[in-house]
Amino acid sequence: MPLRPQPSPLAYVPFVSVDNMMRLVNSLGVEAFLTELATYIEADFRRWPEFDKTPRVASHSRDGVIELMPTADAENYGFKYVNGHPKNMRAGYQTVTAFGVLSSVANGYPILLSEMTVLTALRTAATSGLVGRYLAPEGARVMAMIGNGAQCEFQALAFRALCGIDRLRLYDIDPAATEKAARNLAAQGFQITRCGSAQEVVEGAQVITTCTADKQCATVLTDNMVGSGIHINAIGGDCPGKTELHRDILLRSDIFVEYPPQTRVEGEIQQLAPDHPVQELWQVMRAEAPGRRDGRQITLFDSVGFAIEDFSALRFVHDRIQDTEFFEPLDLLADPDDPRDLYGMLIRAGRPSEAAPKP
């Protein structure tokens, strides 16, 4: 049997499949993974000025959105492809799927290709928990979760690992989603309270997480539901025309954001004037601006997700898979013997080569 020419080592890029990502996470433990990932995110937020930054490039349709999220520092370039299609679940598809690439700035070669459906859920939760360290009330243990879908368990585990939350109040318009979340989280040792309404779920909570999927201007939280001293982790509003909070809540809150040019278009603050004051989280993490100042303050993390968080996640995975079996080499890059002779490489690949030696 003729042998085909074999790719050179430069042709291969480490690829982390969904299966390998799950194996990597389970080898560390979910909460340990979230905690380590949060340290990478925090480190990159603290060097925020070093990054190229741009709002994500979004293609909106009547069914959802497809986005590219790029950023780079002096050494690496990263991007994520991600979609958001709220109707997908009815047809058996995920609402959000993603993959990402990390590349060397020096030569442009990818150094990692990874699934990011699982990884995005983890990085979103790790970011929320990290921000909670700066903004949640001291000693908070009770979190209300409105929206008990695919992100719910990750958020709960991140807030326990990073902030000490161990009591959860759950509500979803779909009782089956609440039962799913309650079953999964009770097995992880949380104290669970199932609630029948959004008004009920926030009772006694010190942190409120809103994470709903419908692409519309909704009022998941009304002004009368939010008392003093609360931290709101608003992660569901993430595109134009999609919000979860009543405008009056925003006017009573100190608002913290990732990247204002993106959040003002996609976040809860799209409801406010373009010059409404907000605080950038990187400045809080660098101790250049205050986070929570007192016990009566309402803090709001208007989370839409930003490319630097994905960059941090890819950087973390790239470091973590070294000398492991949690990736496979993918023949992704053409690498001709003569860099100028790509055509010659193509033609030679179609010719039979020497027969394989007999054993």
Automatic annotation (TrEMBL):
It holds the Pfam family OCD_Mu_crystall. It comes from Allgaiera indica. The gene is ocd. Signal peptide: none annotated. Gene3D superfamilies: NAD(P)-binding Rossmann-like Domain, ornithine cyclodeaminase, domain 1. It comes from the Bacteria. PANTHER family: KETIMINE REDUCTASE MU-CRYSTALLIN. This is Ornithine cyclodeaminase.
